[in-house]
Amino acid sequence: MVRDRYRDQSFDDLKLRLIADRTKDGRIYSVPNVSEVAALIVGDVDTASWRDIIMEKQSGKLQRINELHTSYLGFQYPLLFPYGEDGYRHDVNHQQKPGFNNKRNRLTIREWFCFRLQTKQSEAQTLLRSRRLFQQFIVDEYTMESERLSFIKYNQSNLRVDKYNNLCQASTSSQTQGSQQGKRVVLPSSFIGSCRFMDQLYFDGMAICSYMGFLDLFITFTCNPKWPEITRVFAKLKLSPTDRPDIVSRVFKIKFEQLLTNLTKNHLLGKTTAFMYTIEFQKRSLPHAHLLIFLHPNSKYPTPGDIDKVISAEILCPINNPELHKCVQDHIIHGPCGMSNKSLPCMKYRKCSRLFPKKIQRTTTISENGFPHYCRRNDSLTVTKNGFVLTIVLWFLTIHNCC
């Protein structure tokens, strides 16, 4: 708009200033006249306010805006916000509800992004259907949560970081110059993803293992993008699961919570005394969980016969168990790797790093270290995968607690 004004009428000194703090509703008083909004942000940074963009014709310098600026998202994603809608504003208050006392009355940037990622019938779904641009928006969303980092930075005294005396020890060293020392900012264990957060989880897990002893069940729960709950949603949106990782993660979380309920409260595999888990994400953004179960002494599986009741490492009969046989064929067959397919990631030094194929044995045995070797009999059951006919002699599969 400044360019159009300058083209229609020349000015001796033309300035454009975008103020982050709005005293009036921008939807009423500041509606743009064009259908697109774009900006160029370069490295010429002067000493102006860090919350403003200043375009000055005479000097040619541009002010770099902060990620908490009201217009940051409009300039960063002109395709998602073509009308230059306001982004996060730090002065938005929570809605007051009768009988509800909230300690924080201001809206946080995390709450604002949670609101933006919700599907609303009253507005267009431009953001939610932007595919890879939507994924980039989610990544920037996480990096923009600098409010928490700023609070930690300016409240180090309240976090009691004086006990971390590494900086004091370094300042007294004769081999270190004072000009090379910076200000130490300590991230507490309450900050998710920090080193102290991960260390605390590790120490808690080791404390549980030291008290409960050896674990009884190790269960891997993997997200399946072909779940009917996921396919129904994406059939309407005409998108793929990789385009909306938030929906995939939400469905996975619901199913995983139901699995925990069946194992810990409904005692599907025995009475549970303790459990812990970790959730990881694959390169295709599919989540999977590793779950450790500690059973009550009366519910353990001490003998090989007890282990065979809950764990099977054989190809199931397609006549007696057609549904499980289909699941095994689609999801639980490893490979085929080996000399027939050397390009798989598991192939190291012309051998499978996962130690496949496994040995054939007629019964389940337990080693001296307490690890079971599952029963894998040489029968005539086979499955076909990627054009290869696989038998239990060459390949194996494991079904965790499917019975």
Give a nutshell description of this structure.
It is built from 12 helices and 13 strands. The chain has 403 residues and is of the alpha+beta class. The strands form 6 sheets. It has a 3-stranded antiparallel beta sheet with strand order 3-5-4, with helices on both faces. A two-stranded antiparallel ribbon has the order 1-2. A two-stranded antiparallel ribbon has the order 6-13.
Choose one word for the global shape. Answer: extended
* Sequence of strands across the biggest β-sheet: 3-5-4
Distance between the termini: 67 Å
The number of helical segments is: 12
- Estimated radius of gyration: 29 Å
Encode the helix/strand succession as letters: HEHEHHHHHHEHHEEHEHEEEEEEE
Low-confidence stretches: 31-58, 393-403
Which band does the percent of strand residues land in?
A: 5-15%
Biggest sheet, in brief? 3 strands, antiparallel
What does the oligomeric state look like here? single chain
Instruction: Estimate nothing, just give the exact number of structural domains.
Output: 3
The strand count comes to 13
The secondary-structure class comes to alpha+beta
Mean pLDDT, to the nearest integer, reads 77
Helical residues, percent = 25-40%
Structure description:
By secondary structure, the chain is an alpha+beta fold. The protein has three domains: 1-96 and 103-113, no CATH class; 206-300, no CATH class; 307-403, no CATH class. It contains twelve helices and 13 strands. It has helices at 2-8, 26-29, 72-76, 109-116, 132-143, 146-154, 166-171, 195-212, 228-237, 245-265, 304-310, 322-331; strands at 15-18, 53-56, 217-222, 272-281, 287-295, 311-312, 347-348, 351-352, 365-366, 372-373, 382-385, 388-391, 399-400. Strand 4 and strand 5 (287-295) form a beta hairpin.
